[in-house]
Q: What sequence folds into this?
């Protein structure tokens, strides 16, 4: 047991040391250089504020609310983005019809949709979820399209020789497994974009959530609480990404392990 503990320290020592150094620099800069809690709260101030929101229970309700907003956006992006990407990548006519619309809408920043989200849905969970959806759907469409467009022709021809002739069967058994790494990459990119859009959506188009609390506490001049919620956004986003990568690598993409050294 002692050997395992020492090995764990050695393996993670650099990461832990870098965090300790960063926290020490932060604390010293806040106390000795800035000396203004409004401009830069210290690490100690943030810890005290974190304990306060944990005690009040706000951390749990706000995090749950943000996860609900995020879930609405990601589910809608999956339902719309993946089928559209499949259609564009597999059928030339669908690509010619849909691509101009996608390329017109894609450059519009998701934040620009916030006024319409408020008008259409009000200050509701659906409004925040809609902004997240706008940020997520285009990376999913593009990567799904790219994955299907790059399916090796030899796979399709071999499947047809073996009797798999229907488009539905070719998509299910040949194209989707081949395009899965590209689709997964698009989902990861979309999750990062969607999580950033969530903050803006909750700041201006919601009355709850982690993003809303950042803006609310800024108006209250409580910058220590602002930093707490900023760090919470970072940690929750990290956990979502790590969980997704673990599940996908262990389940969906297990067959790709070892293909790259």
A:
């Amino acid at each position: 047991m002692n050997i395992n503990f020492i090995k764990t320290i050695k393996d993670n020592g650099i990461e832990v040391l870098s965090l300790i150094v960063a926290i020490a620099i932060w604390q010293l800069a806040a106390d000795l250089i800035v000396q203004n809690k409004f401009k830069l709260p210290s690490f100690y101030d943030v810890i005290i504020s974190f304990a306060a929101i944990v005690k009040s229970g706000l951390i749990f309700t706000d995090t749950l609310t943000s996860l609900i907003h995020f879930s609405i956006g990601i589910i809608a992006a999956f339902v719309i983005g993946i089928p559209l990407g499949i259609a564009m990548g597999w059928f030339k006519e669908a690509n010619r019809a849909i691509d101009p619309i996608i390329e017109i809408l894609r450059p519009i920043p998701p934040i620009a949709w916030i006024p319409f989200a408020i008008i259409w849905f009000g200050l509701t969970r659906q409004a925040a979820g809609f902004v997240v959806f706008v940020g997520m759907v285009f990376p999913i469409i593009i990567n799904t399209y790219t994955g299907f467009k790059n399916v090796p022709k030899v796979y399709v021809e071999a499947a047809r020789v073996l009797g798999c002739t229907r488009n539905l069967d070719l998509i299910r058994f040949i194209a989707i497994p081949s395009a899965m790494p590209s689709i997964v990459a698009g989902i990861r990119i979309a999750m990062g974009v969607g999580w950033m859009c969530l903050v803006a959506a909750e700041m201006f188009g919601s009355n709850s959530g982690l993003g809303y609390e950042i803006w609310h506490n800024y108006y209250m001049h409580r910058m220590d609480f602002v930093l707490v919620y900023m760090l919470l956004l970072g940690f929750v986003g990290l956990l979502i990404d790590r969980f997704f990568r673990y599940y996908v690598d262990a389940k969906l993409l297990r067959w790709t392990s070892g293909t790259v050294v």
